[in-house]
Amino acid sequence: MIDKLTGTLQFNQDALRLRDQRQQVLANNIANADTPNFKARDFDFASELRKASAQNGQGQATLARTSAGHIGGSGMSASGVDNLQYRIPAQSRLDGNTVDMDMERSKFLDNSVRYQAELTFMNSRIKSLRSAMQPE
């Protein structure tokens, strides 16, 4: 029973985790807007979500533990996203920084709204599952 509930909500959990990680990447870009030679980074949310869903569909990829003292890993990099990419600037700056604040703010806001929408959707899904389990 718990496995079915976990499976039902796994996609939403992956989406929320990736939205959180993207928010951190975008916040890092904004925080370094005035840092010389800083290169703005981002990742393709859709492809990362497909990868996460595929991993969970086939059984989560895990790292091999060669000693009982090792901590098990999830198969992802330390940032959680395997494929951080550099953003190509629309206009180059003299100090080598590639952060476009208008674009970063726009992407940050879009990601925030989508994160909140995912939370709302997940909350309504949990409520409907709880009501289905309640005896009448």
Structure description:
This protein is an all-alpha fold and 136 residues long. The protein has one domain. Helices cover 56% and strands 3% of the residues. The chain has a two-stranded antiparallel sheet with strand order 1-2. The radius of gyration is 19 Å and the shape is extended. The two termini are 19 Å apart. About 4% of the residues have low confidence. Its main location: other. InterPro entries: Flag_bb_rod_N, FlgB.
Blueprint of the fold:
Blueprint: H1 2-31, E1 41-42, H2 45-57, E2 85-86, H3 101-133
Antiparallel strand pairs: 1-2
Helix pairs in contact: 1-2, 1-3
Family: Belongs to the flagella basal body rod proteins family.
Keywords: Bacterial flagellum, Cell projection, Cilium, Flagellum
Function: Structural component of flagellum, the bacterial motility apparatus. Part of the rod structure of flagellar basal body.
